[in-house]
Amino acid sequence: xxxxxPYGALYASEPKGPGDARxxxxxxxxxxxxxGAWQGRVVLVTGGTxxxxxxxxxxxxxxxxxxxxxxxxxxxxxxxxxxxxxQSPGKGKIxxxxxxxxxxxxxxxxxxxxxxxxxxxxxxxxxxxxxxQVPMQLLRQQTATDQR
Length: 148
Ligand SMILES: NC(=O)c1ccc[n+]([C@@H]2O[C@H](COP(=O)([O-])OP(=O)(O)OC[C@H]3O[C@@H](n4cnc5c(N)ncnc54)[C@H](OP(=O)(O)O)[C@@H]3O)[C@@H](O)[C@H]2O)c1
Hints:
Blueprint: H1 25-31, E1 42-45, H2 51-61, E2 66-71, H3 74-87, E3 94-98, H4 104-118, E4 124-126, H5 144-147
Parallel strand pairs: 1-2, 1-4, 2-3
The structure holds NADP nicotinamide-adenine-dinucleotide phosphate.
């Protein structure tokens, strides 16, 4: 595609809601011939249970990659995975992994789970989970090992 931002002109007007001229993630993948192009690759998206994380996981699944995403509520995680599975043209895996970033041990366990599920493979990591404009929070749990 030509130019540093081929969609720049589409952002010149005010948003008109769903269906306006701005490209969806799927459109960007189509324009870059990326649909089905990442079969066999492993992707992890943190915070895949809502917002940008869900959209990112869904788009990357359409590339054919095996997509894992973190969830702090596995019921919500399974529901998200099922929704993506039903809608996505991708044939790769889409699976939630339990992780709550308030606990460093949970983060480490999530990393172990991912590597166990993928045979130590990870090609793309999207560090998405979190909130913006909230007061700084401290970890609720840290093991003695973490503090060394
Ligand atoms: N939206 C924006 O305009 C905007 C602008 C600038 C930056 N960002 C950044 O983009 C990222 C996603 O934003 P978003 O609007 O899509 O947010 P969102 O809809 O609130 O989704 C955040 C995701 O992170 C997860 N999460 C939140 N706290 C967590 C924790 N302690 N441990 C593990 N997972 C946690 C949420 O899980 P649950 O589903 O369980 O809540 C959810 O999956 C954030 O890092 C945000 O700071 C967003």
